[in-house]
Specification:
alpha+beta, five-stranded antiparallel β-sheet, 23 helices, 36% helix
Length: 799
């Protein structure tokens, strides 16, 4: 009997996985978990970093620096190009229609009718007006590390530039999500095949992340961070926002001490144009420079830059952004780079921007880092200053060339102009060429020479306020015969320019002639410590010592210090500190800092007026008379200065300006201030006088407590009946002279030569003390008549 099978067949057990596979799978699982956890942690960390940065924008630490509010006035002497500069910086869109500028303002349309280089009419909404406020011109956007950029939105980027950039840098930009996988694989394949890094695979978003938040080193850690941050940024921002940030971030070259970032700033640097005026070749050149800005710099390597431009144009054609015809025309076009004069207006104030940047370092920073800074600079005056320096220094160069047989050294110049009532700095030039040298000579310490003498005379006139044994006035006389002064065991013997000797002078005449011997004698009369005290009261805090040399401006100060000190003369004795920044606002528009001028009464208003009146005499009849001969006729006061260098300081009722000319190596300039600094000052002030804020300079206001008297210019005393040279002199009331002139006590005999027809009797005149009397001609040959050097009464000598 056959046994029956089991009711349920037993299952064959499955073979167990080999141990090593099991371990491998577990390790993979753990690694996957670790990678996911690490990646998630990194993503969380870096996404928070980006989110925090993006709250204030990608350029949260940038500073927008604005100039003083620009106002256009009927009658302003401005060229259309100068007006266009300010319109660009103020953000207006405009077009030129013949002799008119048509401007689209937010709530109005404006027409500016030009007549030559002058504003003839201003129409706002077709109604004529005398002025139109343009607003605050954006001078610069500065970031840490001296980065300079002009921020723009995506809508302000011309399509031709967008197309050029994506053609050369990332043609799939508008289609990928931050990482171009196909491009990465292709680049890796090419690199392996060529055994070197041949192709890049960075997208625009990756470049933006790297430029804003990462270091450029080529390490795997940085690449992982870059990929994670790129993915997150693509989730947070639209393609347009990313492209705009990239367009503002990209490095495009250098200008002097600044790194130029962004296509808008690059467009101005290379073409002198706004973005919306870029041509196809221009846009291709900018896009091509992104890879290696220095290598493709068109100023240094035009042929190399042109080849790179043509590569971009070829890619644009391949990508169907331009036609074959457009390509052919573009590659045939020259570079059309901007000349030096075409660089935009903000670049005319680089020394000023440096000072603003330095001042911002000392201020409390807004929490988010970003800010809007409103400054005092007047771009019209800044341009006038640059033009005056450029023109005036050409003449200085010619004078130097005449001094040196070969290789005349290059002199430098500096200018500072400010409102003497507020201290607001309106223009600063720190040197002839910022690209060549960033040294700001406004802060170079140099002996001011005779520009210091008004402080000596202010100490003298101040005796009328302070009292004392001797009260000095503009009519006080001083003898300028050569004198040796002893001080601290040493002898000091000053001399006048060209060794001139004038004899007895009033203080007014001594200052007008810039007489050195007289200035030291006045300082001696008032006391050298009193002169130093006066200078300190007015803000000159350098190494000024109470010695005879102080009267001649032998102790070094800076033009900036001198400008602050001179405000007291121009501002009724009130000294104001020069200021650059009016206010600083944070990103929310809240004012976080307000500038102040640090005003204080330095001298009595009466002293300031008398000194100002004496400085007007310097311009009428003294060393600064060249100002008037050059056509500057408005009420003004000023003083030349000649030491190692040339100086000029002067002011009207609305504007104070200091000019310095000299060598950086401290050698003697050898050209007096009247021929070096004065022409620059005059050219600048003439241009300023054609602009509305500075156009109507007034006579200086006379304060209470000022008297006047008619005096004899020889004795300095009240004019008598027989004084022939008299003047109405101003005094602090109560200090007028009380005595009449004791020199001219009888009628002056007429000069017998005054009416003698000497031209009818040519000859050589010399010999003993004798003179011709008027009357009939002598009966001797006129060529034998000799006239002596001194003229007592007596018959002629005939030889």
């Amino acid at each position: 009997m056959t046994p029956e099978p089991e009711a349920a067949e037993q299952q064959t057990p499955k073979a167990a996985l080999p141990r090593w596979i099991a371990i491998f799978l577990v390790v993979c699982l753990i690694l996957t978990f670790v990678l996911l956890a690490t990646g998630g942690g990194l993503y969380f960390h870096y996404s928070r970093l980006i989110d925090a940065q993006l709250e204030g924008g990608p350029f949260r630490d940038s500073v927008n620096i604005y100039g003083a509010s620009a106002t256009l006035n009927k009658g302003d002497a401005l060229t259309p190009g100068e007006i266009e500069d300010e319109l660009k910086l103020s953000g207006y869109h405009y077009k030129v229609d013949g002799a008119q500028l048509k401007i689209e303002a937010p709530d109005s349309h404006v027409r500016i009718a030009m007549g030559g280089d002058q504003v003839q009419h201003i129409y706002v909404n077709d109604r004529e007006t005398v002025s139109w406020t343009m607003g605050y011109p954006l001078l610069e956007n500065l970031s840490s590390g001296n980065e300079r950029r002009h921020m723009v939105t995506y809508g302000e980027l011309p399509p031709v530039l967008v197309n050029a950039v994506i053609s050369i840098e990332d043609k799939h930009f508008f289609h990928h999500r931050g990482l171009d996988v196909a491009r990465i694989i292709k680049a890796a394949y090419v690199d392996v095949r060529e055994h070197r890094k041949e192709q890049g695979a960075s997208t625009l978003t990756m470049q933006l992340v790297r430029g804003l938040w990462l270091h450029p080193e080529k390490k795997w850690k940085r690449k992982v961070m870059e990929a994670i941050m790129t993915i997150h940024l693509e989730r947070r921002w639209s393609k347009e926002e990313i492209f705009a940030a990239y367009a503002n971030m990209v490095f495009i070259g250098r200008q002097a001490a600044y790194s130029i970032h962004g296509f808008a700033e690059g467009s101005q640097l290379y073409f002198g144009k706004d973005l919306h005026n870029l041509s196809l070749p221009d846009a291709a050149l900018l896009a091509g420079m992104v890879q290696r800005p220095s290598y493709f710099n068109p100023y240094r390597s035009p042929e190399r830059a042109m080849k790179r431009r043509d590569v971009v144009l070829g890619l644009m054609r391949d990508n169907k952004y331009i036609t074959d015809s457009q390509y052919e025309q573009a590659v045939a076009a020259p570079l059309n780079l901007a000349g030096p004069a075409e660089v935009h207006a903000a670049s005319a104030a680089p020394y000023f921007l440096d000072l603003v940047s330095d001042e911002l370092q000392s201020l409390d920073q807004p929490e988010d880092g970003s800010k809007n800074v409103y400054t005092t600079i007047d771009l019209n005056l800044q341009r006038a200053a640059a033009e005056a320096i450029a023109s005036g220094m050409k003449d200085v160069d010619k004078l130097l060339a005449a001094q040196y047989s070969k290789g005349a050294p290059r002199a430098e110049a500096a200018l500072i102009a400010l409102d003497p009532h507020t201290g607001e700095v309106k223009a600063i030039i720190g040197g002839r060429d910022y690209a060549h040298s960033q040294l700001n000579r406004i802060f170079a310490k140099r002996p001011p020479g005779s520009v210091f003498k008004p402080f000596v005379y202010a100490a003298a006139i101040d005796t009328g306020i302070q009292g004392g044994d001797k009260i000095l006035t503009p009519a006080t006389t001083v003898d300028d015969n050569p004198t040796t002064f002893s001080y601290d065991g040493r002898a000091y013997r000053p001399a006048n320019f060209r060794q001139e000797i004038f004899g007895t002078l009033t203080l007014r005449q001594a200052l007008a002639k810039s007489d050195n011997v007289a200035a030291v004698k006045v300082a001696q009369m008032v006391g050298y410590p009193a002169v130093v005290s006066m200078a300190r009261r007015m803000g000159l805090n350098g190494d000024i010592k109470p010695t005879p040399a102080v009267a001649l401006g032998s102790y070094a100060v800076t033009p900036f210090e001198m400008a602050g000190a001179w405000t007291a003369f121009a501002n009724s004795g009130m000294r104001v500190q020069p200021q650059l920044v009016l206010r600083v606002q944070n990103a929310d528009g809240e004012t976080v800092h307000t500038g102040h001028s640090d005003a204080r009464q330095a001298i009595d208003p009466r002293v300031a007026f008398v000194i100002g009146n004496m400085l007007e005499e310097v311009m009428r009849t003294g060393t600064a008379a060249g100002v008037r001969s050059r056509g500057f006729t408005v009420p003004a006061a000023g003083k030349t200065g000649t030491s190692h260098d040339g100086w000029f300081a002067g002011y009207t009722s609305q504007l104070l300006c200091i000019v310095w000319v000299g060598f950086d190596d401290y050698r003697e300039l050898g050209i007096e201030g009247a021929k070096s600094a004065l022409p620059i000052w005059t050219a600048f002030m003439k241009k300023a006088g054609q602009l509305e804020p500075y156009r109507n300079a007034r006579a200086f206001a006379r304060p209470d407590g000022i008297g006047s008297a008619k005096i004899c210019m020889q004795s300095g005393k009240l004019a008598g009946d027989f004084c022939t040279k008299t003047t109405n002199e101003v005094f602090i009331a109560g200090t007028e002279p009380q005595e009449k002139c004791d020199i001219h006590t009888a009628p002056v005999q007429p000069d017998p030569l005054a009416s003698y027809p000497s031209a009818s009797y040519p000859g050589v005149y010399s010999g003993p003390r004798s003179v011709w009397f008027p009357g009939p001609a002598p009966s001797v040959p006129p060529t034998t008549v000799i006239l002596p050097h001194s003229f007592p009464i007596g018959p002629p000598i005939v030889q």
